[in-house]
Amino acid sequence: MARAVTPRRKALNTALAWAIGLLIFFPILWTILTSFKTEAEAIASPPLFLNFDWTLENYAVVQERSDYMKFLLNSVIIAGGSTLLGIIVAVPAAWSMAFVPSRRTRDILLWMLSTKMLPAVGVLYPIYLLFIRLGLLDSRAGLVVVLMLINLPIIVWMLYTYFREIPGEILEAARMDGAGLREEILYVLTPMAVPGIASTILLNFILAWNEAFWTLNLTAADAAPLTAFIASYSSPEGLFYAKLSAASTMAIAPILILGWFSQKQLVRGLTFGAVK
Amino acid sequence: MATRHFRSTARLMMAPAVILLLGWMLVPLTMTLWFSFRRYLPLRGGDLGWAGFDNYVRFVTSGAFWPSVQTTLIIVGGVLVITVALGVVLALLLDQPIWGQGAVRILVIAPFFVMPTVSALVWKNMFMDPVNGLFAHLWRFFGAEPVAWLSDVPLASIVVIVSWQWLPFATLILLTAVQSLDREQLEAAEMDGASPLARFGFIVLPHLSRAITIVVLIQTIFLLSIFAEIFVTTGGAFGTRTLTYLIYQRVLESQNVGLGSAGGVYAIILANIVAIFLMRIVGKNLDR
Amino acid sequence: MGQITLERVSKSFGHTEVIPPLDLTIEDGEFCVFVGPSGCGKSTLLRLIAGLDDITSGAVLIDGQDASDVPPAKRGLAMVFQSYALYPHMSVRKNIAFPMRMARIPQDEQNRRIEAAAKALNLTDYLDRRPGQLSGGQRQRVAIGRAIVREPSAFLFDEPLSNLDAALRVGMRLEISELHERLRATMIYVTHDQVEAMTMADKIVVLRAGHIEQVGSPLELYRTPRNLFVAGFIGSPKMNLIGGNEAARHDAHTIGIRPEHIDVSEDGCWQGTVGVAEHLGSDTFLHVHGTGFGGTLTVRTTGEVTLAHGDTVRLLPRAGRIHRFDASGLRIV
Asked: For the whole model, what pTM was predicted?
């Protein structure tokens, strides 16, 4: 409970907070605005803020130049697939760590997190080779597996912290009530952990969506997601600000919209379950 | 016994995650280790035999190595300092009663949704471009000479871009922590005659220490391997080559896998040193 | 049937032995209360019976069958937890139905039992609510309902009333006692509150540091506490314990006398000054100083005495009510 403050103080705080918030948001706002300008308006000096002729032309050009829907579909499949696969592997593991801890549980958890610190570039070539051998290069399946693996430690960690908030007595009650392990996890634990699981899914979906090392290095044409789509706009096309902005907006819009509709879970998820 | 059987089931349920991660760690690591002792040039004859420690010596003695370590540390350190400091300020501000708190919070966390390739491209072209960038317009408006950000102050520019991406995360964690602070503690301190500064120093900051640790840990994990921001903005030029990027160039651009792998091993060792250091802190904090 | 026997049951966590080997039999239909201060191992003992923790050695027998290796779900016991442990995402009806659903009892039988339990526990109007919408006492009744419908061979209660406020606690205590009278099922009840133990139990097991200090009916424990610990633990206010010369006069190391067995009387043999007089209306508790025994003496007397701070009183212990203990704390018979 915050203490009551004077209206003057509140107004001052509000103004300051909004100013900073808008400043932080400005690059995104500017990108969206620019995407509706013509190329000439986009580089006008002084810059035009709202007083320009709104046009959708850039979006048409971008879609024509590169098949946006294909990249979008790849992004959805890769981010969604890797997240779901990760959850399926992580739920039992996190259950085990949270409710049947052993002396080594903490070490295992920390070890899992430490694999996240393994520099991707250190194993880039071996993975590259393995992908060629297994015919996974530029395939969605390959990326689903890799992104699942790099996010798995975070998924396990988050689920673990959410599960630990659930009182062990309730699971014991289920056991006393005659529930087997499967029933306990399916009927009691999972429904109670739904908010936490939702947050975990959201955050890891975003992390996978935005992942830009493996997606850039392991795809070419077929499996390339939106990160690759946008990377193709680095110079010299980057000089066409309006088109760059349109492409950028198209790349981030799905996540922005998703984030908008699931603020609560997301805010919770963004803290990686690390603080309450 | 009853629960002993239960325990072994529990261990079994952990197995898929552990085995997958173990495989993900060991298989490529072993291969990297193997390559690092070979002369391996895929485009110039492939595997040309045993190289001993040549790759390791060459990688460290090349003029690019130490600068790249330095660059890595500057970027990671710079971003950490900026995000934690601004994050604390923002968290304290957002904790105050304001109108439209939810909306401001969304504005502040928005950068986290932007993929690194997009944010790098937008910052590079639309803000930091010395001719048409918004900063150039601003500088000219005040009668100053526009700065060629990414070539004149490349490291600072990249730190700014990356900080922008990670500030939301730091702010949110710290905000959650601030909100969990017991107000009565603050009021007690106020009754004891502590000034606002003293209250911040003796109560708020210690309360935030766990959250700050978590911010540092998680961000370090991600920052050590930033790639897209450099790939898109400078391509490693102008002294922005991090260790990650240097290895990437050796492996994919010069196609010297042996040398790159030796670099990879160094990067892994460096990451492990940081990891051990951080895990110590986090391990202690985990139990609280 | 629900006879539970513990044979040389012990429990260690790592190298710490929390319960040294002990034997105990709880007869079918008995209301048995485990009582003791916190950390005495009473909850652990209950969890060993439930199967939620493994016994380190010995055996748990249920109706003569060794159940040591049987998982909790299969022991046929029902448990009411301290936190009630209701499933927050299920309605009251679903909470109560859960154990039957697990046992694959036919739907119409489930409904019949739910209706019966709800009627008995005054929950009929709340069946479609979530636990979060209920008061503490109602949650408690849901937890009990969930236990009843299983028709278990024994009920286990782990400090079920400690989260309720004082008034509700008295009410629920009566309800549980009535439930026992009606079902005549074995109940094992863990509490740190000796009032609950005294009022509800057929048999009380007093525990300290994992040891059984005494087993007996409430009045046995009240009348003939086996040692100083039980003497001090059972009864409220606590028994007065006196050492030194006064004890030596009775050929004991320590003597004990309950506050209700001391009378304020002109010809009392003890004399002291009233420190605090607590007027409860029905009774008055006098805390008397300066008796020469060291410490204060608590005396329970009738409600409307007018004694106050500073008054001098003479006290007379009732004949035959003095408990004598030797140097090791054991009762002298």
From this structure: 0.81
